[in-house]
Design goal:
- 41% of the residues are buried.
- β2 and β3 form a beta hairpin.
- The protein has 18 helices and nine strands.
- The longest helix is centred in the N-terminal third of the chain and has 27 residues.
- Strands 1-2-3-5-4-6-7-8-9 form a nine-stranded mixed sheet, with helices on both faces.
- Belongs to the peptidase S33 family.
- It is found in: Endoplasmic reticulum membrane; Microsome membrane.
- GO terms for molecular function: cis-stilbene-oxide hydrolase activity.
Length: 465
């Protein structure tokens, strides 16, 4: 059999596999009555929510300072001291996952050199707050620009939303680039970075049904509560999903949508177009083809790196039992995705290439966001809460009409040519392919991401505002 025939057979087989997996997932998660939790105002706090005649929810905004109790840090160190390691296979690189040969030096650094209190001071350089929405405390970082007295610079509110396995910590290098006025522009940003409930310092939902639509509504309430009925929104990973739900369902509130990963399900027709482009590259620009194709390679990578998705959409609590007991295990599970998501070439290296782009402190501080509040399980549950809507393609029935932008970093997992975005994004005013970078763009390439956000808002300001 020729190489071309083998390639066609593999691609067709991959498509069949995708359709079969989609069928299995739909069979597992289908239900006679649709789950409407998250589509109307809900209650995710402990116990029954406020009812008519009872006290209403406290809507105050409270200053919050990160200050982890000493006993939590002592417990962490004790657990790290007791870490068990199993020898990896010889010469396995990172293809079998995060192995003990790479984990040992990371754990040693965590025990002996990592200084949480120093990281705490770094995190507290910006103002943090909490406010209760639908029964749960929502944490957010709020950074306002400092302008000279009498300045006529326009201030645009911008919400930036993280994803998994990230946190608001990803944005610490990006925020100053957005809140510092540029001499070339007559506007600047006021940045709001919330923690998705169940992540970081936001309280975990206590009731079932907290999905992306519920989170979008909670974040809209947050913005209205701090005085911003209209704003720009940016996101990647789950942040992309939440942000585009804001744009789909609450378009009058959204001035513009900027994404560094577009999270949506391809329709059957889109899959056909994807297959056609694979064999006829001239249908798209060369730079688009180079990042999204060849199909064989992209599908193989997606299948290899998506095992966590199946686990977290089916049995997140089982996985959480292990992670809540082992800080080293939590680090290995989360940081394995930092290796694959930053550059797949890292899989060929003994340590995953992790420290080529990130410092040990940056990596471990992000891991601490899952360990300190014991919320790994809550974060993983977000997958299970959203899987029905993802498979039903419910959200895709409502297109995005607000001014939108997509910045594609070449090592991102989900990459689509512009042709496949137009069916969902009806007002795509900016589509740019970055020269480098991957899934954790804000932490890895903050200057590139900041520049694209600035340029997008400039377009929107001139054309629509």
């Amino acid at each position: 059999m020729s190489c071309d025939c083998c390639c066609v057979t593999l691609i067709i087989g991959s498509l069949v596999t995708i359709f079969v997996l989609r069928f299995i997932y739909r069979a597992l998660f289908s239900q006679k009555k649709p789950d409407t939790r998250g589509y109307k105002e809900g209650w995710f706090g402990k116990g029954p929510g406020p009812t008519e005649g009872n006290a209403t929810e406290d809507t105050s905004i409270r200053p919050f300072k990160i200050n982890v109790p000493d006993e939590v840090l002592t417990d962490l160190k004790n657990r790290l001291e007791l870490t068990r390691f199993e020898d990896p296979l010889e010469d396995c690189k990172f293809f079998y996952g995060f192995h003990s040969k790479a984990l040992r030096p990371l754990v040693e650094y965590w025990k002996t050199k990592y200084d949480w209190r120093q990281q705490e001071r770094m995190l507290n350089q910006f103002e943090h707050f909490k406010t209760k929405i639908e029964g749960i405390d929502v944490h957010f970082m709020h950074v306002k620009p400092v302008l000279p007295e009498g300045s006529n610079i326009k201030i645009f509110p911008l919400m930036i939303i993280h994803g998994w396995p990230g946190s608001f910590v990803e944005f610490y290098k990006l925020v100053p680039l957005l809140t510092t006025p540029s001499p070339q522009r007559n506007f600047v940003f006021e940045v709001i970075c919330p923690s998705i409930p169940g992540y970081g310092f936001s309280e975990s939902p206590h009731q079932k049904g907290f999905n992306g639509r519920a989170c979008a509504r909670v974040f809209l309430t947050l913005m209205e509560r701090i005085g911003h009925p209209k704003f720009f929104v940016q996101g990647g990973d789950w942040g992309s999903f939440i942000a585009n739900l804001m744009a789909r369902y609450y378009s009058p509130r959204i001035l513009g949508l900027h994404l560094n990963m577009f999270f949506f399900s391809l329709s059957s027709w889109d899959l056909v177009k994807y297959l056609v482009i694979n064999f006829f590259p001239f249908l798209v620009r060369p730079e688009e083809y180079n990042i999204a194709f060849p199909m064989k390679k992209k599908i193989a990578m997606l299948m290899q790196e998506s095992g966590y998705f199946h686990m977290q959409t089916t049995k997140p609590d089982t996985l959480g039992c292990a992670m809540s007991d082992s800080p080293a295990g939590t680090a290995a599970y989360l940081l394995e995705k930092f290796a694959a998501g930053t550059n797949p070439e890292g899989l060929k290296k003994e340590d995953g290439g992790l420290t080529e782009k990130f410092s040990h402190d940056e990596l471990l501080t992000n891991v601490m966001m899952y360990w300190l509040n014991n919320n790994f399980t809550a974060a993983a549950r977000f997958y299970k809460e959203n899987i029905r809507d993802i498979l039903s393609k419910r959200h895709e029935r409502t297109p995005i009409t607000v001014p939108s932008a997509v910045a594609l970093f070449p090592h991102e997992v989900l990459l689509y040519p512009k042709m496949l975005l137009s069916g969902q994004m009806k007002n795509l005013v900016s589509y740019n392919i970055m020269p480098r970078g991957g899934h954790f763009a804000a932490l890895e390439e903050p200057e590139l991401l900041a520049d694209d956000i600035w340029n997008f808002v400039e377009i929107v300001k001139e054309k629509y505002l």
